Amino acid sequence: MYNCILYRITMRIQLLLLSFLPFLISSCSLSNQQTYQNNDCRVGVNLTLSGNAASWGNELKKGIDLAIHFYNDTCAKNRVQLIYEDNQFNARQAVSITKKLIEVNEVDIIISGYTPIVKATKDITNKFEVPLIATLTSAEGITDDLPWVFRDFVLESAYMPLIADYLKENTDFNTGTSLVINDDFGLDSKKYFTQAFEETGGKMLSGELFDASTLDHRTKVNKLLSQNPDFILVVGRGSALINACRQISELDPNIQIISSVSINDSNIWNGLGAASEGVIYAETDLNTDNPEFIIANKLHNKKHNYQLNWVNIYGYSIGKYICEILYNNGNHKKSIQQALQNLNTQSLRGQLIMSDNREIISPISITKKIN
Hints:
The chain has twelve helices and 16 strands. It has helices spanning 21-26, 54-74, 91-103, 115-127, 156-170, 184-199, 218-225, 238-251, 266-272, 291-304, 310-329, 333-341; strands spanning 2-8, 41-47, 80-86, 109-113, 132-135, 149-151, 175-181, 203-204, 208-210, 231-235, 256-259, 280-284, 344-347, 350-354, 360-361, 364-370.
């Protein structure tokens, strides 16, 4: 099973000498027992780790753990202590956790994810001048006017136009429709894809929405197929996404399915089975030929019995540049903030560059699933 990369928006830069590679080579296993000193740097991690929305939070955690363990196992200077808190996808609980991390744990930086959680806590971290790295959130303007808030997540406003351009340049598709989840992620995907596709002369027909708990999409799918589209844009998560794609494939095996980064998950591919064949989707451009990736993937697979996925790699790359920043700046929050603002580093996701509005820019690929 492999994927065929169709198109990249940014040229990938490969480095043979990787600053983090010695950490990987020297780490034959990941120890769960690490001791910390009072002067260690403290990273608060405010994630959804239980409940129905916990999947991505736990995958992010595995990547963060991998990077921090490598760093602490090999570096005596400015060791990093991770303080995890489970917000259970509850915004009110996330607010309490944020205050605890700042006032009780006195963390030097916070990592958090998911749009409702970040929206509820970003003003607090900004008020107390604690750097916040927000990920797994695609809501527009999340960092606006908040100099202590940074986002590391490619938005649908970047993914969707690239897919639309690819389809127009490389296919005969003129008409599409959509079946997307009824939240910021799905609505933004539909919005930006429709804008870009129609700007190229294509036409998007009226689509359908579904909730995260929806498992039977067949009535909506039949309605969409009656419009005779060339393709269907399908965006969602988990079981709802699996069922949507499977039911589309069952009702019309020849219809082209277009999707976004959330479909690139081993559980989803396994759930789709043969229905995954030929799906075109946008994803983070992962450098799987990188020696660092090969070693990290081997260790991750040894511990968790599956290969690194894109969420693990997001967590790993965030953990890696946090370690590099803390190594150079210690627990001086203003220096950490300035280092994040000036971030320009190589990662398993290619070159990561912080924009003026504190949004990380990274390479994107368009990929076709081939079984």
